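Human: I would love a firmer grasp of how sequence relates to backbone shape in proteins. Could you go through the record with me and say what the backbone is doing? Here is the record:
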Amino acid sequence: LLLQERMPRDVALARPPPEQTTEPVESDSLVPEAQRRYTSAHSRVPRTQLLSNGRYSVMVTAAGSGYSRWRDVAVTRWREDATRDDRGSYVFLRDVRSGGVWSAGFQPIGTEPTSYHVSFNEDRAEITRQDGALTTTLEVLVSAEDDAEVRRVSITNAGDRERDIDVT
């Protein structure tokens, strides 16, 4: 029966095909519509982003927590708790001279940063925090070809003294 069905004629299109557009495209409209931005790790219910290639999945919260799964196997431990949001894989940074320790996201250390920005895009989650003169950016994405996640940490020093940072 499925082979005998006819294609629907009156289907609503979300966007017209490129050949039917006559207006020039403005740069403001090129921002992906699925992008969500937050300026705090705190919310009543954790804000989340799910990244997946169909086999490997990563869930990231705005606080930097979350889990990783490969098919039906839990790669990281996870316990859903909307009040704590403190489980997942974390990247820790340590200032060698002062001994200060913080995480690339808000959790699990929970130290309040100078500024905090989270961007959830279709293909990645990006958490940027500023602690004094240091800005840390954590990007999380899932490979489209392989069953793997990528976490990239970038550190920018806007201060006038040299810093030695260990990342674990």
